[in-house]
Every structure is written in C-alpha cells, then in structure tokens.
C-alpha cells in the first residue's frame, strides 16, 4: 500500500512529459498554422466568390490561424473550425448582396483535422452540395442551412460517422431520393432538414428512427404526407427531446407512436391538416414544455389531461376552427405556462379567475376570434403580468376591464370587437402611455382625447364614439387610425404641433369624422407618411404644396370634403404614389399630366369634381392601374384608343402587386378602403379592393365611338360609359370580357344591333343599354333575357324579349305555328304530344272503368263509397246551413233592440 502512492503520483508526470515530447516532435511551432493547410485555404478562397470581402484577411503574409473565420487547435496549429456563416443575416439587404457563393473547392479535403464547418446563410444559387464533404471523416458539426444549395442531397454524407450536428435546413432547391444513408450517422444528435423536399422518400421515418442518439429532429415544410407515417406503428426515438414536423400535409389523425416519445420537451405539429380530436394521451408527455398544434383541423374539446403537463411553458392550440366546448379549468394548474394561444377556435363559455389560479408566469394570452366571455370580479387582481393580450371578438363585458391597470409589462393590447360600451377610465391613457400597440376598434368606447398625448407606436381607435378635438401626438407614433368617430374642430395644430424630434408617423387615418378647416402647409415635418386618409370630413381650402414633400407617400385619400382648386404640381414628387382619391370635392382644371405618367398608380379616383379637358392619352402607360374612376366631371373629347396597354386590366382578377393598398405593422394589417359605385350602388371596398378592376367614365361630355381596344381588357369587372355622347356600334369584341359583372352604356347615341357575342358574358349581373339608338333583335341565349326590360328601354327600334315588343315577322311565325301552316320544326313534337295525351287518357279511363265493369265486388264497394260520401256531404251542409241561420237570427234580434 505504501509503494502504490509514488506510482500514482508518477503517472500524471509521465503523461505530461509524453505530451511535451510529442509537441516538440511536430514540425510546427506551438499554435502556428500548418503550411499545407494554408495553401488549401487559399485555393478554397480563390474558387469562392466574396463580394463583401469577408475573407480579406486570408493572405500568404498572415498566419492562417489568425485569419477571419478560421480557428486552429491551440496546441497543434491544425485548422479545426471554419465559421463562414454570413454575419449579416439580420439585415436582408446585406444578406442578399454580401453572401459567399461560387464553387466549394475540394481543397477542403486537405484540412484533415477539420471538425466544424459552417457555410450557412450564403448564396450558392442552386449549386449541389459537394459530395466530397462525405470524405471529411473528422467532421462533427456541419451547417449548410439557408445557403441556396440545390439538387439531390448526396448520400456520401452518410460516411460522416462522427457527425453530431447536421443542418441542411431552408435550402428550398434540395430534395432527397433515398434517406437510408442517414441511419449510418449513429452519433448524430441534431438533424435539421427544414424545407428539403422529402416527398419521394416514403420510408423517412424508419430511416430517421434508427439513429439512437438523435435528440432534435426538424422536418418542417418537407412535403411529407399521410402515406409516409401510416406504415410505422412505433418509432424508436429513445433520446428525442425536440420534434418539429410542422408545415406538412399529413391530413390524418395524430399517429399513436408520438405518444410513446416520453422524453419530448418540444413538439411542433402546426399547419399539417391533422384532424380528429386532440387525444387525452398528450397528458403522458410529462416533460413537455412546448406543444404547438395551431393551424390544423382538430375538432372536439381541449383535453383536460393537458393540465397534467406541469412543465408546460407554451400551449398553442389556436386557429383550429372546429375545436369547441369550454376552456378547461385544469389549464389553471399549469404553473409554468407563459404562452397560451386558443384564438381562432369555436370555444364558448366563460373565463373566470379559476382559469388563472396558478398561472403566475403567464406572459402571452391569445383568445381572439372565439366566443369566450371574460367574467371576473371588478376588483380582481390577476396573478400574472402579461406582455401581450389578444382578445379581439372576445366578450370582455360592457365596462372597461379594470384589472388591466394591474398589468405593468404590457406591450400590446388587442380588444377590437369586444363589446365594450363605456367611457375610457381616468387612469387609462396615463397607464397606456408605455404600451406599444393598442387596438380598441369596433366598440362603443367614448371619451374626450383633446388633452391626451398619444405615445403609442400603433394605435387603432377606429369605429368608436370618441368626440371632442383631436389628441396630441408624440413623435413615436407610427400608425394612428381614429376613423369613424365623432372628432370635431380643426386638424391643425393639434395633431401637427411643433416637435423637436423627427416624426415616425407612417399611417394617418382620421376619415369619417366631423373635422373642419383648411389643411395647413406644414406636411414637410412628417416625411415618413405613407398612407393619408382624411376623407369624409368637412375640410375646405386647397391641397397645400408641402404635401409634395412626402416622398414616401403611397396612398392619398381626401374624398368627400369641400376642397377646391387645382391639384398642386408638387405632388409629382411623390414618386411611389399608388392611390389617389379626390372624389366628391370641388377640384377644377385639367387632369395634371404627372398623374397619368405616375406609373406606380393602381387607383385613380377623381369622380364628382369639376375637371375638364381631354383624358390624357398618357394614361395608357399606367400598366398597373386597376381602378380608373373619372365619372361626373366635365371631361370632353374621345376615349383614348390605347387603353388596351393597361396590362393589369387585361390580366386575371387576382393578379397584381398590392403593396400600396396595405401595410403590415407587427403582423397587423392596415388596408386602404374606397367607396366605389359599382352595379349602380355605392359600396365600401376594403378587404376585396385588391380584386376590383373597373373603368367609370360616366356623366361627362365624351364623344366619338367606343374604341374597340377597350373590349380587350378581359380582366375588367365593371365598365361604365353612360351619360355621354358616344356614337357608333358596340363591337363584337365585347364578348371577350369574360369577367365582366357590370356594364352600363346607357344614355348615349349608340346605334346598330347588340352583338350576339354579348351572350358570352356569363358573369354579367348588371346590364344597362337604355336610351340609345340600338335596333333589331335583342340577342337570345344565356341570361340576356333575364334582365329587366328597363335595361333596354329608350331604343325605339329594339325588339325581342325581354321587351314586350315583337320583332318584324314574329306575328306571322306565331300564326303559322298556331295554324300548323308552313314549316314548323316543332310540329312533330306537338303532334306526338297530343297523340300521347289522348292515348294516356284512354288507357287511364278504361283502366278504372274496366276494373269496375268486370269485378262485381269492386263495383259494389265503389258505388257504396259514393253513396256514403254523398250522405256525409248532405249532412255536413245541412248542419252548416242551420248554424248560419241561427247566427243570422241573433244578429237581426240585436238590430231590433
């Protein structure tokens, strides 16, 4: 025992001396780059494209261990890591312009000790993954994600027997023919193939489940379907903690083998068309911390067993419209729950304090788009501190929720359409000043905001009952939507007061209020404005020149006010303008040339003003134009013959770019809206504005013929040229407007016949050709005859259905039909009709009479029935007459008195 102690002490000393000797025997000095590997790296650099010059430090003059993205072993100096992932991934413009690309040189094979290779977030533009990577036997970490690789994933990667981490995710050009090689990676802990096409590999699950050490498996958006999981009843994932198979197409019930994965910590099954009920077996996954089931087709109740998952932090079940029942109170036992999402379901019933008993850590609560009702005591103090509350369309009660003032960490509150009928409490605006996103639209909330300074990033108070003068804004506000309220007074300077900071305001919508006064000339202080809607107020005066300083302006809506004057030329500086709506004002002059040359325009809405002059032919250059409404002005001249150049109106109804009509802020959408006169009535178009394609030039002084080119705009839904002085004929080319729903050519001087091709307009719902000089027969076929005669009145020489006017020759033809004289193609059918009717009568009559004649018992029974019926009828009539006689006698006696 005494002799063993020196031996124990001697052993570490021997090991240390042996390591020193081995280091000294190396040809390199301590930590200096190997020359062979330096030359290999320089050949790699030569083959690669490097627009950002990320590898500028790679030169012969420098020790390669000191190069950017290269890491060497501190003792041997051999290259062990290449960290070539793009460092600018957080900035998309940098990411796309400054990525590595080109060829990956096989010189990498000379890096014999390389264990870590990261080429993620680069741009190899569809090049295949080099198969020689499968020969780099010491690799333990390989990240090729988001790098633009394409083609087949090489099976040689299966030779990397020491690999622990393999990430091929989000190379959407990659696909797999066969995945059996993956089972050779017996030490693999992490596998990410998100976005790789696996639909050719039916047995993916068998192959992947043969990796006993696998801890994380990411197969999101891989085009997997139900045929790929039904054959395997059990999966041997003994070590699996994370499973992500979201964004596939399983379209089946959740397979039972999932519930055997008892080591799971995170399970992502969203957006898969999974159906059936959510199984109570989820309660077996005791270690689960994240359960993501939203965007599926589950039905039935939420299982109460989920309340047993004591480690659960995220429970996302929303956007399953068929999930019903009530919210289980067992969810209130999930003391570690931070994120609860049940919005977009058919849940009903009340939410009370019981549901939140132990939810001390709850931060995100989403119950929007449900039929749940919040029922808590007015003095309730929640045990949690929320960061985000989304309860749109959830009934919060008539009173403003008092418990909100206990929440001091909120960054977003969404209570639109929540049934609140109340005045904002005194504490609200001071409490809300630090909240970034406030959505309270479509309630009946009232209050005076004239003394309030709004400091929120996004604020939507639209469609409520707020009144008084406008609030003040801080420079932090990005979106302000207070449309459809009862604000009054002038716009300035309450909103546009002096500020020392640059305003961030991008959306200003104060339409449909009772604001008055002129627009002040101070718009240059708000250079970020992209969407302005001041419509449907009582504004007057001219458009100030300073609006032309808004170079980011995409949409300008000033409709339905009392504005006048010319459209200022300064607006031509708004180079990205896509929508201009000045309808129902008193603007005059000619339509400025810059408007019809602004090629970004999708909507020109100038109806009901005092514009005059010709329609500029440059309007035909607006290839993106979808709405052209110049109705009810004093325009003259002819309709430009080049309108067929507006390519968006010739395309299908869903094609085009709609960026100028909408804007996303924190995943919430702001959409432009317009009041358009289509099908003879004014309607608001908002969500479906993107699908509208129309031309309305009605109620002007236009003359000449309708250019045949306009009928080549096959994508138009509505065409209104009524109340002008147009002449000529309607071209047969009108039959090509296959999507047309509304056509109004009334009150012109059109002549000739209605083309037969108009019967091709199968979507036509509104037609008005009245008060022209059209002649001859109205075309027959499809739905033309279903329109009201009013659609054709005022055309003296027009005849045929649906007008009550026969065409020449119709009476003679009718006479020939009735007398049977002349050529009547229907005569054989009519003759056989009468022959059939006569023979049928004969057979029916003698079928009854013959039976009675030859069968004595039937004959007696039949006539006995007739006698009994006669007696019954006689008795009933006699009783009724006696009753009536008595009634009349009583009535006469009362009259005598």
Question: How would you describe this structure to a colleague?
Answer:
- With 897 residues, the chain is an alpha/beta fold.
- Residues 1-9, 11-30, 821-830 and 890-897 have low confidence and may be disordered.
- Helix 9 crosses helix 10 (856-896).
- The radius of gyration is 40 Å and the shape is globular.
- The strands form 9 sheets. It has a 28-stranded mixed β-sheet, with no helix packed on it.
- The longest helix is centred in the C-terminal third of the chain and has 41 residues, at 856-896.
- It contains 10 helices and 58 strands.
- Helices cover 15% and strands 22% of the residues.
Relevant terms:
28-stranded mixed sheet, alpha/beta, 10 helices, 15-stranded parallel sheet, single chain, 58 strands
List the helices and strands and how they pair.
Layout: H1 4-25, H2 35-47, E1 48-49, E2 70-72, E3 79-83, H3 92-97, E4 101-102, E5 116-118, E6 141-143, E7 150-152, E8 165-167, E9 173-175, E10 190-192, H4 204-208, E11 216-218, E12 242-244, E13 266-268, E14 275-277, E15 290-292, E16 297-300, E17 314-316, E18 322-323, E19 339-341, E20 348-351, E21 364-366, E22 371-374, E23 388-390, E24 412-414, E25 421-423, H5 428-432, E26 437-439, E27 444-448, E28 453-454, E29 458-460, E30 465-468, E31 472-473, E32 479-481, E33 486-490, E34 507-509, E35 514-518, E36 531-533, E37 538-541, E38 555-557, E39 562-565, E40 579-581, E41 586-590, H6 593-596, E42 603-605, E43 610-613, E44 627-629, E45 634-637, H7 647-650, E46 662-665, E47 668-671, E48 674-678, E49 681-685, E50 694-696, E51 701-705, E52 718-720, E53 725-728, E54 742-744, E55 749-753, E56 766-768, E57 773-777, E58 797-799, H8 810-819, H9 827-854, H10 856-896
Parallel strand pairs: 3-5, 5-6, 6-8, 7-9, 8-10, 10-11, 11-12, 12-13, 13-15, 14-16, 15-17, 16-18, 17-19, 19-21, 20-22, 21-23, 23-24, 24-26, 25-27, 26-29, 27-30, 28-31, 29-32, 30-33, 32-34, 33-35, 34-36, 35-37, 36-38, 37-39, 38-40, 39-41, 40-42, 41-43, 42-44, 43-45, 44-50, 45-51, 50-52, 51-53, ...
Antiparallel strand pairs: 1-4, 2-3, 46-47, 48-49
Helix pairs in contact: 9-10
């Amino acid at each position: 025992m005494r002799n063993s102690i020196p031996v124990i002490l001697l052993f570490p000393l021997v090991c240390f001396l042996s390591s020193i000797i081995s280091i000294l025997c190396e040809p390199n000095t301590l930590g200096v780059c190997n020359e062979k590997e330096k030359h290999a790296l320089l050949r790699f650099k030569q083959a690669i494209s490097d627009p950002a010059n990320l590898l500028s430090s790679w030169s012969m003059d420098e020790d390669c261990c000191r190069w950017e993205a290269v890491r060497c072993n501190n003792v041997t100096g051999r290259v062990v890591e290449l960290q070539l992932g793009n460092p600018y991934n957080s900035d998309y413009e940098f990411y796309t312009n400054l990525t590595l690309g080109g060829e990956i040189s096989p010189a990498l094979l000379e890096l014999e000790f390389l264990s870590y290779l990261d080429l993620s977030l680069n741009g190899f533009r569809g090049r295949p993954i080099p198969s020689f990577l499968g020969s780099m036997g010491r690799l333990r970490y390989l990240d090729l994600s988001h790098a633009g690789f394409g083609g087949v994933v090489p099976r040689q990667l299966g030779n990397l027997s020491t690999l622990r981490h393999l990430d091929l995710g989000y190379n959407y050009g990659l696909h797999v023919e066969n995945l059996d090689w993956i089972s050779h990676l017996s030490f693999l802990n992490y596998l990410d193939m998100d976005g790789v096409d696996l639909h050719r590999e039916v047995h993916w699950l068998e192959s992947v489940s043969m990796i006993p050490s696998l801890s994380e498996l990411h197969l999101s958006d891989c085009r997997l379907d139900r045929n790929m999981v039904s054959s395997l009843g059990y999966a041997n994932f003994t070590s699996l903690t994370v499973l992500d198979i979201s964004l596939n197409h399983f379209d089946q019930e959740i397979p039972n083998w999932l519930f055997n994965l008892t080591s799971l910590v995170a399970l992502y099954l969203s957006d898969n068309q999974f159906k059936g009920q959510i199984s109570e077996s989820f309660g077996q996954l005791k270690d689960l911390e994240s359960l993501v089931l939203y965007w599926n087709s589950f039905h039935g109740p939420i299982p109460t067993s989920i309340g047993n998952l004591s480690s659960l932090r995220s429970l996302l079940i929303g956007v399953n419209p068929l999930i019903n029942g009530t919210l289980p109170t067992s969810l209130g036992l999930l003391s570690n729950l931070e994120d609860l999402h049940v919005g977009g379901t058919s849940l009903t019933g009340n939410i009370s304090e019981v549901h939140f008993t132990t939810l001390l850590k709850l931060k995100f609560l989403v119950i929007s788009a449900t039929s749940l009702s919040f029922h808590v005591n007015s003095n309730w103090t929640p045990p949690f501190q929320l960061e985000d509350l989304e309860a749109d369309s959830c009934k919060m009660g008539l009173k403003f929720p008092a418990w909100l003032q206990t929440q001091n960490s909120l960054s977003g509150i969404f209570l639109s359409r929540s049934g609140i009928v109340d005045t904002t409490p005194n504490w609200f605006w001071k409490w809300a000043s630090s909240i970034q996103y406030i959505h309270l639209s479509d309630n009946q909330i009232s209050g005076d905001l004239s003394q309030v300074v709004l400091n929120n990033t996004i604020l939507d108070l639209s469609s409520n009952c707020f009144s008084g003068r406008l609030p003040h804004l801080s420079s932090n506000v990005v979106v302000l939507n207070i449309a459809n309220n009862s604000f009054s007074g002038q716009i300035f300077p309450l909103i546009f007061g002096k500020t020392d900071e640059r305003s961030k305001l991008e959306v200003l919508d104060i339409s449909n209020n009772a604001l008055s006064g002129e627009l002040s000339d101070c718009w240059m202080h708000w250079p970020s404005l992209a969407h302005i809607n001041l419509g449907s107020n009582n504004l007057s005066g001219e458009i100030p020149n300073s609006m032309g300083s808004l170079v980011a302006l995409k949409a300008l809506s000033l409709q339905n006010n009392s504005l006048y004057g010319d459209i200022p030329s300064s607006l031509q500086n708004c180079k990205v303008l896509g929508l201009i709506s000045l309808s129902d004002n008193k603007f005059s002059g000619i339509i400025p040339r810059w408007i019809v040359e602004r090629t970004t325009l999708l909507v020109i809405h100038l109806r009901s003003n005092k514009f005059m002059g010709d329609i500029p032919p440059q309007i035909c250059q607006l290839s993106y134009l979808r709405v052209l409404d110049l109705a009810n002005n004093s325009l003259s001249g002819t309709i430009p013959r080049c309108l067929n150049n507006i390519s968006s109106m010739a395309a299908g109804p869903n094609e085009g770019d709609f960026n100028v009509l909408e804007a996303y802020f924190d995943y919430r959408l702001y959409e432009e809206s317009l009041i358009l006169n289509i099908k003879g009535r004014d309607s608001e178009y908002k969500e479906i504005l993107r699908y509208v394609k129309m031309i309305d030039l009605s109620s002007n002084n236009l003359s000449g013929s309708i250019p045949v080119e306009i009928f080549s705009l096959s994508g138009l839904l509505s065409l209104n040229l009524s109340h002008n002085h147009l002449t000529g004929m309607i071209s047969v080319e009108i039959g090509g407007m296959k999507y047309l729903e509304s056509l109004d050519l009334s009150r012109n001087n059109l002549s000739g016949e209605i083309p037969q091709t108009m019967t091709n307009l199968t979507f036509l719902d509104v037609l008005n050709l009245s008060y022209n000089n059209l002649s001859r027969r109205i075309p027959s076929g499809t739905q033309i005859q279903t329109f009201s005669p009013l659609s054709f009145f005022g055309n003296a020489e027009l005849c045929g259905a649906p007008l009550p006017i026969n065409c020449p020759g119709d009476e003679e033809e009718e006479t020939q039909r009735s007398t049977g004289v002349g050529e009547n193609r229907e005569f054989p059918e009519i003759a056989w009709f009468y022959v059939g009717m006569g023979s049928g009568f004969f057979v029916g009559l003698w079928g009854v009479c013959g039976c009675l004649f030859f069968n004595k018992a039937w004959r007696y029974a039949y006539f006995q029935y007739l006698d009994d019926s006669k007696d019954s009828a006689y008795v009933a009539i006699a009783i009724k007459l006696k009753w009536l006689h008595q009634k009349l006698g009583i009535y006469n006696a009362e009259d005598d008195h």
